[in-house]
Amino acid sequence: MTAVTKKAENPIAHLSPEDIEELGNKLDAIRQDILESRGEADAAYIRRMIKTQRYLELGSRAVLLGSVFPPAFVAGTIGLSISKILDNMEIGHNILHGQWDWMRDPKIHSSVWEWDNATPSEAWKHSHNQIHHTYTNILGKDNDLGYGIMRVDEGQRWAPGHLGQPLWNFINACFFEYGIAAYDLDLGRHLKLPKEKRPESFEKGLAATLRKIRKQATKDYVVHPLLSLPTGSFASTLAANFIANVVRNLWSHSVIMCGHFPEGVETFEKAAIADDETRGEWYLRQMLGSANISGSKAMHVMTGNLSHQIEHHLFPDLPSNRYAEVAPKVRALFDEYGLTYCSRPLVPQVYSAWHKVVRLSLPNGWLETTNAKNLPQQLGVLWKIVRADKRKRRVMLRLLERHANNQSKDLVAAA
Length: 415
Fold this sequence. Notes:
single chain, mainly alpha, two-stranded parallel ribbon, 61% helix
């Protein structure tokens, strides 16, 4: 990954300040075209999507009343999983971005919408809309970059604890909504403070989040299973709700990983971002700091159109159903300005993101210098690095990285 300013070949070095501002003006024009063409067809789309999701959820929960029978269990679980994905991705996420506020519909507005998720809407809007989308992929500013539990850039110092990040990431994927809730609260940092030093805003946020979790858990794990008691379906309904939540979490985690963490997505150093960053510079950072998933229209809907993550980061307040329309225009600008449009099908993109998680769980250069023949020796080297004190570890890490760089140069020379 490596921050762009530290790369041997900076992918934006060929762009002048004038080029960047010209690019920004062209993107502004694309955005304005969509703003001016929003209308009844767009409003009908989101209303139809909400109606579909609600009917699907009601129908699935009705089927689960008889979930003691395997066909009902399977059908109800699948339907409930899809309804929860739609609620989070294409409906909740996008409404909370303010994409549909222009409709002036008091029931479909970012100021009043609440979703089937552990995080209260207001907390999520602050951490996601205001922080993540403003400081996209700036190391030390964008907390979404690894969610504070992963090393996601070669420039971040490696520590032995990073060896466990593939496991932490998998656990986070299974219970993603709770991980996001903890992240939105900045839970780790605040819990390290003495109780009397924690800000009042944290205590209020924690109380609101716990209320939301209790409400969601009561609905899924108490009310609906109890409604299934007369048919003897309590346990199966309970299991179906748990499975649906895990499926929703795994799916949303995969989509987010594909949009932010695969190979080819750039990161930025905080010191390299000007305090007076221009609109064009902000656009450029969004273009390079995101990745897309190619696929069918159904897949785009199921991802909340975050399969168009590049377009979403450029235009987070545009209706999600219009991203497919602007994507070819955005891609043409990438080509025009000599930039790489990072897009792959779902499976390769998921693989790429997980490959990076595993690769960066190890010290820089370890994988590059490891093969089947020297694996036992390399595991010994890794063990010595883990056991070393901090000072000696830094020296060993520098030597390992230097060895990997020399090997790379030798391969280039031999070619």
